[in-house]
Amino acid sequence: MNRAYPSVDEAIADVFDNATIALGGFFTAGSPIRLTEALANQGAKNLTIIVQSVGIGNWEVNMLLENRQVRKVICNYPFFRSASRVSLFEQQLRAGEVECEVYPLGTFIEKLRAGGAGIAGFYTPTGVGTLVAEGKECRAFNGKEYLLELAISPDFAFVHAYKGDPYGNLVYRETSRNYNPEMAMSANITIAEVENLVGPGEINPDQVHTPGIFVQRVVKVDRPDIDVTIEVSPEEMNT
Predict the structure, then answer these.
(1) Nearest to 87 by CA among 229, 239, 237, 232
(2) Over 50: is that where the pLDDT of 229 sits?
(3) Which neighbouring-strand residues pair with 70?
(4) FRET partner for 127 with CA separation of 20 to 30 A, picked from 65, 77, 162, 166?
(5) How far lies 111's CA from each of 44, 50, 206, 217, in Å?
(6) 4-123+153-222, CATH topology level
(7) Sign of torsion, CA 52 58 60 64?
(8) Which residues contact 118 (CB under 8 A, 6 or more apart)?
(9) Region at 79 (left for phi over 0; alpha for psi -120 to 50; beta for the rest)
(10) pLDDT tens for residues 113-165?
């Protein structure tokens, strides 16, 4: 089945209000910039976004926040490292305009992997005895305490790949792989933007990082032109 779409706008056209969307990437590496920009233009509201960091390096996420499209964020890096710098997301969170759930890196990615594997949840020692444990089931195994964490299965996942084919097979480049494979497998509908769209059979099966069974839509995009750090915004770089 040919899963290639002619444009990012058509690929995300049916994203609906109140949807849960996982956005791949680790700061600037492997972020689905073009799909996120298209979503900002499309205008779906009351979204829950699952993302590693909130507009810190991956500045396109701020477009969704500026449009007031986001109701809740699930992440593991919500703020700047410096308390003197306040991001747009932090401003909205302090004003009670958005909600936030924060998870450590390992717990965050395992919740997504579990969702993709059809596992309802898992027990982890991370967070025991901290605020993270509030309201969660806690059990002892072999004399050690563990928390029950539930899986995440978003409605959509937006991922960025270096290469893909019309069947949805994807290849990521170096560190841009990060969360993308787990997010791709966890969602009901995965949409991949790819820098290089190649023909069927042109990807060596041994090089496939995300099999096409997890990807429903593929769209060709230009390679992002990014030159920012996680601590300096494009606006600040111009001052």
Answers:
(1) 232
(2) no
(3) 47
(4) 65
(5) 25, 11, 26, 23
(6) Glutaconate Coenzyme A-transferase (3.40.1080)
(7) positive
(8) none
(9) beta
(10) 999 999 999 999 999 999 889 899 999 999 999 999 999 999 999 999 999 99
- Domain map (residue ranges) of the chain: 4-123+153-222
Helix ranges (H only) for the chain are 8-11, 33-42, 61-66, 88-94, 105-117, 180-186, 234-237
For residues 170 and 83, give the distance between their C-alpha atoms in angstroms, rounded to a whole number: 39
- Element containing residue 101 per DSSP (H, E): strand 99-102
Q: How far apart are CA 80 and CA 76, in angstroms?
A: 12
Average pLDDT score over the chain: 90
- What is the C-alpha to C-alpha distance for residues 174 and 164, in angstroms, rounded to an integer? 15
Report the amino acid identity of residue 119: I
The count of other CB atoms within 10 Å of the CB of residue 210 is 24
**Residue 159 tokens, joined:** 């991922």
pLDDT bucket at 238, cuts 50 / 70 / 90: very low
Structure tokens that stand for 75 in this block: 């992440």
- 229 with 57: CB under 8 angstroms? yes
Distance CA 142, CA 162 (A): 44
% of the chain at pLDDT higher than 70: 93
Contact 215, 3 (CB under 8 A): yes
β-strand pairing of 138-141 with 144-150: antiparallel
Q: In the predicted model, is pLDDT for residue 223 greater than 80?
A: no
Q: What is the pLDDT of residue 58?
A: 79
